[in-house]
UniProtKB/TrEMBL annotation, chains A, B:
Domain Homeobox: 113-173
Top-rank lineage group of the source organism: Eukaryota
Localisation per UniProt entry: Nucleus
Lineage: Eukaryota, Metazoa, Chordata, Craniata, Vertebrata
Organism: Neogobius melanostomus
Transmembrane stretches, start-end: none
Protein name in the entry: POU domain protein
Family, as annotated: Belongs to the POU transcription factor family. Class-6 subfamily.
DNA-binding region: 115-174
Annotated POU-specific domain residues: 20-94
Length: 182, 182
DNA sequence: AGCATAAATAATAA
DNA sequence: TTATTATTTATGCT
């Protein structure tokens, strides 16, 4: 059967302290909440934390793993194991941050100042072509995206994101039509 | 020509205090940074802040406006004007949050003193149905609320508030905190 | 002055 | 974990 997650268990008073394993769920919940706030205060993303942990600690930590810890969508055992790792790492990150933003970024390992990509402006002609492709197939394969990008002379990634956002927009507008205001 | 923004000016020492207008740019920068952290600590999005401000304060505040304030992509004059508004609102939001997450969400999403919604009169039949749902589950999900609202043909927000109030009443009378958290 | 939407981030599916 | 969707933030535009 399913394994219960911290987030589900923590609201059941009788299990606030998991008897056998001696895991304090309330403590974990408190830490997870604080972890998120402290992470954001440092201006770090889940991806950055995951990558930095992967570099300094042994195993791999994905963005999803950090996300799941913060949401407590994780078993008590995993949480118990992950908590000290995150605690130690975060304290260290805060320490470097004290010495300046630059030091933190070096500790984290990312490029010091990764600038946001300039917003792309599609020409009306390009949008027309994109829409005609979208009508035929809203979910093009990687190969198709590459071809469309080449035809329009735009960056492949830009075209990929355009299709993501276009699907999103369609979903949002059609949701209103189909189900009426949620 | 272009108008200089706070974010550009604040790093020029000689202009830390804007002479003529007496605007303390450093203070604004400090506040903007803190505002973001405090907003995230409350778990609020820029959109939510904008909408809430639009409801309680006079003019309209878009998500873009909040975003631009946080990034200081705004003229000193605008920043100076916006700062006290945000400061006051955020302090109030934090105050409500102290009293529980539910209160904060009501403050953010609920109708303010401005054009208050007409008080809804539930029919006895509707109250009966609501109570039967409440007995089964005092804390319905957003989806469940939507469904109940549709079944009874009441506004979704009205139903949501009914559950809030019903829980509040129960809490006040029973003294036993059924819902633990907060 | 803020809408529309591109880009980035978080959450979930596979 | 990795892919992909869903949500949020940021910005080009007029």
């Amino acid at each position: 059967g399913d394994v219960a997650k911290v987030g589900q268990l923590v609201n059941k008073p009788q299990s606030a302290i998991s008897g056998e394993e001696g895991i304090n769920l309330e403590e974990i919940r408190e830490f997870a909440k604080n972890f998120k706030i402290r992470r954001l205060s440092l201006g770090l993303t889940q991806t950055q934390v995951g990558q930095a942990l992967t570099a300094t600690e042994g195993p791999a930590y994905s963005q999803s793993a950090i996300c799941r810890f913060e949401k407590l969508d994780i078993t008590p055992k995993s949480a118990q194991k992950l908590k000290p790792v995150l605690e130690k790492w975060l304290a260290e990150a805060e320490h470097w941050n004290q010495k300046g933003q630059q030091n933190l970024m070096e500790f984290v390992g990312g490029e010091p100042s990764k600038k946001r990509k300039r917003r792309t402006s599609f020409t009306p002609q390009a949008i027309e072509v994109l829409n005609s492709y979208f009508e035929k197939n809203a979910l093009p394969t990687g190969q198709e995206i590459t071809e469309i990008a080449r035809e329009l002379n735009y960056d492949r990634e830009v075209v990929r994101v355009w299709f993501c956002n276009r699907r999103q927009t369609l979903k949002n507008t059609s949701k209103i039509n189909v189900f009426q205001a949620q």
